[in-house]
Design a protein that fits this description.
By secondary structure, the chain is an alpha/beta fold. It has one domain: Rossmann fold, CATH 3.40.50.1010. It is built from seven helices and five strands; from the N terminus they run E-H-H-E-H-H-E-H-H-E-H-E. The chain has a five-stranded parallel β-sheet. Helix 7 links the parallel strand 4 and strand 5. Helix 1 crosses helix 2.
Length: 144
């Protein structure tokens, strides 16, 4: 089964001093050992680079070159399926914004959910269940 990667999970998996790193790492190993794979969207990588290089968010931010290498390693990983927004994704994004009114802090999550939905991915690895719960149809896999 394919599990969509939310940015919070990618950050926790890659930042060794993140409070949830051990749990994120254990979940990765468990899912891979069980034969699962991951779905990753370009917008998640952009948000990841933004977050891990931000000194206001990270006690020890990564340099931009280091963040790019880590993001690119995920993008190139054999266990990762690349998913992309398309025209239907954008239509669903606008529809969900109108119907669910998630607010401006949930825009990127709503777009990511639409990307996953249109790629046939219905499981999302995140500790932010409320970001996706109102949209319906997703199984949330938490690692906290």
């Amino acid at each position: 089964m394919t599990h969509g990667i939310d940015t919070d999970f990618l950050v926790a998996a890659e930042i060794s001093n993140h409070p949830f790193h051990p749990r994120a790492d254990a979940l990765i190993r468990s899912l891979l050992d069980a034969g699962h794979d991951f779905a990753l969207a370009p917008q998640t990588l952009a948000e990841f680079v933004h977050v891990v290089t931000d000194a206001r968010r990270m006690p020890q931010p990564l340099t931009m070159p280091d963040a790019i290498v880590r993001a690119e390693t995920w993008w190139e990983a054999e266990e990762v399926i690349r998913v992309f927004p398309n025209g239907r994704t954008v239509s669903d994004f606008f529809d969900w914004l109108r119907r669910h009114q998630p607010g401006r802090k949930r825009l990127l999550d709503t777009q990511l959910a639409a990307t996953f939905r249109n790629a046939g991915v219905d499981r999302i690895v995140t500790n932010n269940a409320r970001d996706y719960g109102a949209l319906g149809g997703f199984e949330i896999v938490s690692y906290n």
